[in-house]
Write a structure and sequence with these properties.
Elements: H1 12-33, H2 38-42, H3 48-80, H4 83-107, E1 114-116, E2 123-124, E3 127-128, H5 130-149, H6 155-180, E4 184-186, H7 193-210, H8 223-244
Antiparallel strand pairs: 1-4, 2-3
Length: 246
């Protein structure tokens, strides 16, 4: 029996969307670390079209980045599994995460007491529409990262490692999203320990009970590594800029 190839060429759609994600990530790094604002840009006397594009980056850059990351992640999942399996996984994660976040904002469980602003995209109820997409990006890429590195571990171990990766990701994200961007606010003024415990437990459970049991077909696809790394670099750039421009 022939083995499946380690990698097959991407489609044009995959290539264009990945290039768009990389371009937007580089722009995000520059704008975030440079601490560029509309006031700063206004002093440069740029052509109106370019100034409008930069304003778009400043006001909507992160939601657009998440949507680009989602589409790249979904296309990668469809390649690893099938289109139908990837869609079922995406719907499960989007619905579950929206329900979890809605319950969380209304009851303070399981993360602690917090509320969202409207700075991270339009609100659906009390949760920005981009939040479920961010959950999908984090969970799916953590899953494929683990399956690429350790494809033969048990499903329980896989879930626990994915939970640890997702919790670490959230730990790096929090200062960027709360202090720098104001996407959400904690009632206590700081991130409660309960938030990280909940992230670990919930992400592990979602992986355990919803992740398709099919093994990874193409272990050496760069998208999971790149998507997680690029977004983390933007978070760190923002946190460094906070310290530098303080």
């Amino acid at each position: 029996m022939k083995r499946a190839p380690l990698r097959i060429p991407w489609t044009l759609t995959e290539s264009l969307l990945f290039a768009a994600f990389l371009f937007w990530s580089v722009a995000g790094l520059i704008f975030t670390f440079g601490h560029l604002t509309t006031v700063t840009i206004g002093r440069w006397h740029l052509p109106p079209a370019l100034e409008n594009f930069i304003d778009l980056c400043i006001y909507n850059g992160d939601p657009i980045l998440i949507i680009l990351a989602f589409f790249n992640t979904h296309l990668h999942a469809a390649r690893q599994w099938t289109g139908g399996v990837a869609r079922r996984w995406a719907v499960s994660i989007l619905l579950c995460s929206y329900a979890i976040e809605t319950i969380g904002t209304l009851t303070a469980l399981p993360f602690g007491e917090y509320h969202y602003s409207d700075k991270f995209g339009p609100l659906l109820g009390c949760v920005p529409l981009t939040i479920p997409f961010a959950w999908h990006v984090i969970l799916t890429n953590a899953l494929f990262l683990v399956r690429a590195i350790a494809p033969h571990i048990s499903s329980r171990a896989e879930a626990l490692i994915c939970g640890a990766i997702c919790t670490t990701y959230d730990f790096i994200l929090e200062p960027f999203a709360t202090t720098l961007k104001g996407y959400w606010t904690w009632a206590e003024g700081s991130v409660p320990l309960l938030n990280y415990i909940a992230w670990f437990v919930l992400s592990a459970l979602l992986i355990k009970f919803f992740a398709p049991t099919l093994s990874t077909r193409f272990r050496y696809d760069i998208r999971p590594w790149t998507i997680l790394t690029c977004t983390i670099l933007i978070f760190l750039a923002g946190e460094l800029a906070m310290q530098f421009y303080r």
